[in-house]
Write a structure and sequence with these properties.
By secondary structure, the protein is an all-alpha fold. Helix 6 packs across helix 8.
Length: 291
């Protein structure tokens, strides 16, 4: 039975047909949820290549929002079978509901539709197509400052999962709640401030340094890649990529040393040295920390 036939039954008061329609379009909802999550750089991966807990939770939320939007769209009416397929008609409603959920419910400032569209275009050109800001200016016809604001707009939302290193896996909430595996509340706050500082300084690195670090560690919207792939993309040899990665990390750390976040970290270490260290505390290093 097609979507259009089920819609006709729904219009005649058949509630069971609505459930069948929703079930039939589960694949469409999942597909759009994954696309929207990718546009907002939410599909973080583990070191094994699978989706992180954060990405899975985000997809689950988007799929729930999409299913609800589909039902609301059907109940509102307005679909005309003579103008096209139902999936073509409903897709913009699904996308809009999912984007509004991310933009308004997960920690960023809400923008109007045109402004957020501009942000998505600028970030696609910068992160996915590798365009320079000056090229984006010419492509979109907007000033340089507007391009910089659009590129740095936080479409990857801060959450408790950002407290976890990119190679980490498992339930971060369980680790946060465990007194045996995590430090104090001050440690969590300092790590949050540190991650915000890192993101700002990462975006100030050269485009090549961003590409190498981002792909090597799979952070800040870049898909994780091995040395060979990074070498091919940057026309380098693998030992050269390794050396460039180390230099970029040093450059990033040097840029962060005088920041407020690093001053907090140094102060926390001084306090920790003056206090007895609990035998239950297990430190967790991140990709940007010196080993």
């Amino acid at each position: 039975m097609t979507n259009e036939e089920l819609l006709e039954q729904i219009s005649n008061g058949d509630d069971a047909a609505l459930a069948k329609l929703s079930l039939m379009n589960t694949g469409l909802v999942k597909e759009r949820a994954r696309l929207i999550a990718r546009q907002y750089h939410c599909l973080r991966q583990t070191k094994y290549g699978g989706l992180s807990d954060y990405a899975k939770e985000t997809l689950s939320e988007l799929e729930s929002v999409g299913k609800l939007a589909l039902v609301e769209c059907v109940r509102a009416g307005g679909y005309d079978a003579e103008k096209g397929r139902f999936t073509t008609y409903v897709t913009p409603f699904l996308d809009g509901a999912m984007r509004r959920h991310l933009e308004c419910s997960m920690g960023t400032l809400a923008l109007d539709r045109d402004s957020m569209g501009l942000v998505r275009k600028a970030q696609r050109l910068y992160y996915q197509e590798g365009k320079e800001p000056s090229e984006i200016c010419a492509s979109l016809g907007i000033p340089f400052r507007a391009v910089v604001r659009a590129i740095t707009y936080p479409t990857h939302f801060f959450s408790v999962y950002d407290l976890q290193g990119p190679d980490g896996d498992g339930d971060i909430l369980e680790r946060l709640a465990s007194t045996r595996l995590f430090g104090s509340a001050e440690d969590a706050v300092i790590r949050m401030v540190t991650m915000e500082c890192l993101r700002e300084e990462f975006l100030r690195l050269s485009k090549k340094e961003q590409d190498i670090l981002g792909r090597y560690f799979g952070v800040y919207g870049f898909p994780k890649a091995d040395l060979r792939e990074i070498a091919v993309r940057n026309r380098m040899k693998e030992p050269g990529v390794e050396k460039a990665k180390d230099q970029a990390l040093k450059h990033l750390r040097d840029r962060c040393r005088d920041s407020f976040a690093w001053k907090l970290r140094r102060a926390r270490r001084m306090v920790a040295q003056a206090e007895p260290i609990s035998s239950n505390f297990v430190p967790h290093s991140a990709w940007w920390e010196e080993k």
